[in-house]
Amino acid sequence: MRMKDILSVSGHRPFPQPAAPWAMTQRWNDLLFAHWPVPAASVGHLLPEGLQPDTCNGSAWIGVVPFWMDRIRLRGVPPIPGTRSFPELNLRTYVRDQHSGTEGVYFFSLDGGNLLAAAIARTFYHLPYYWAEMRHEQQSEREFAVYSRRRFSGSEVIFKARYRGLGPTSKLAEPARGSLEYFLTERYCLFAKNRAGELVQAQVQHSPWALEDAQADIERNDLPAAIGLEMPACEQPVLHYARRQAVYLWPIRLSRPIRRRQPIPAQALPSI
After folding, report:
1. pLDDT tens digits, residue range 109-153?
2. What percent of the chain has pLDDT over 70?
3. If exposure means fewest CB atoms within 10 Å of the residue's CB, which of 95, 130, 152, 213 is most exposed?
4. What pTM did the predictor assign?
5. Are 107 and 92 in contact (CB under 8 A)?
6. Which residues of 2-37 are buried (b: 16+ CB within 10 A; e: fewer)?
């Protein structure tokens, strides 16, 4: 699908697409989705006020997603030098807004191989980006090796893995509503906490995911421990691969705009 056509296809979204102008486009490439089921109570205390864990099959889910990004464009801004292509890695979970019930994704951390891009994401989207030494290397058509080491971290935060997609199947060509695959990937809102501690959100638009089954050898994963999250020792992750996805993002906004008090006109005050 052509980039400009993505905005015209929105029937797969769980809620309407924003009417306001989008703010940014980017493309995500060669993604591994590695997911582990965890008790909802183990992640609930790590979320900002106003969010609750979203669950499927009786569990909350923790995801680690390495990929590489390109075709980054800010609306109305010429291409930014040095941000054309770089690897990224995120640690995430799935949530609902306690007030509106809106489903979305919450990022515990995002490691990026580009300092400028990390700074832009922290500034404009309040996302917990870290600058990292990263490599995302293609070994064959659908096989990749990933290495990430967070820079300027008080303790070592390393992720190292090899993974490969196993090829398209009719089952995963477009995940069905109600399936685990749909729950883990079809997310069209991201949540974050701004500097004032307020819950904010940004909507996202893309085509339905075309997933593949995947194999992965995750040699080291320090991301959960870096936020104090203990992962199940023997649980094998649920693995999927996706070739690419073009994405539109809208500006960040308050999840629940604050209704500020208005001054009372002097003529409305009772006379004494």
Report:
1. 999 998 888 888 888 899 999 999 999 999 988 899 999 999 988
2. 91
3. 152
4. 0.91
5. yes
6. eeeebeeeeeebeeebbeeebbbbbbbbbbbbbbbb
